[in-house]
Every structure is written in C-alpha cells, then in structure tokens.
Amino acid sequence: MNSHVCKCEPFTALADKCLEEVTKYIDKKLPDAETKESHGVFAFKTDAGEFVLNRQVPEKQMWLSSPVSGPSHFDYVQNRFYEKNKKIGLSELLEKEIDQILKQ
C-alpha cells in the first residue's frame, strides 16, 4: 500500500466536502452563474470575473483565484480552511466577495 496516498485521503475528503459546500452556496446565491466542476476544481463566473477554487493535495491546501482579491492559499486549521496572510477563512472570504458583487 502506498503510504503517500493514505496520508492524503483525509485531506481529499475534507477538500471534496469543502468544494461541495461552496458549490451549494454558489448555486443558492448565484443561481444563474455559469459553473464548471471537475476533478477537484470548481469554477464560476460572475459580473466581476471568474472565480476558481481547487484542491492542492500535495500542499494540503485549497487555492482560490478571485477576480476581487486575487490568489489565496488556505490551510486546514481548527476545522476550517484559513488564509493566514489575509487572516480570513475561505467561507468568510467568499461570502464577503459574493455579497459585494451582488450589491453592485
């Protein structure tokens, strides 16, 4: 058995759950948004541009490319994905940016 694969399985499950929750959130908040989902990558287009969220298994991070705030790398810390440089969680950042877009 490959020990590298075993170490990544818990992260992959967490990342997949995160992608699923973000997909549901975007479907609810932006029902007309064009979305794409494939192999650990979720992308959606807004009036501000395209967001891309993907899991980075070797780094055990979620990466977000945002037309609003630029690139962010989130580590799984204390039961959430957290961006230490911006001092914000993934959910909080997406909610803030989507709300900002919807107000325009």
UniProtKB/TrEMBL annotation:
Keywords: Ion transport, Iron, Iron transport, Transport. Belongs to the frataxin family. It comes from the Eukaryota. PROSITE patterns: FRATAXIN_1 (PS01344), FRATAXIN_2 (PS50810). Signal peptide: none annotated. This is Frataxin. GO terms for cellular component: mitochondrion. GO terms for biological process: intracellular iron ion homeostasis; iron ion transport; iron-sulfur cluster assembly.
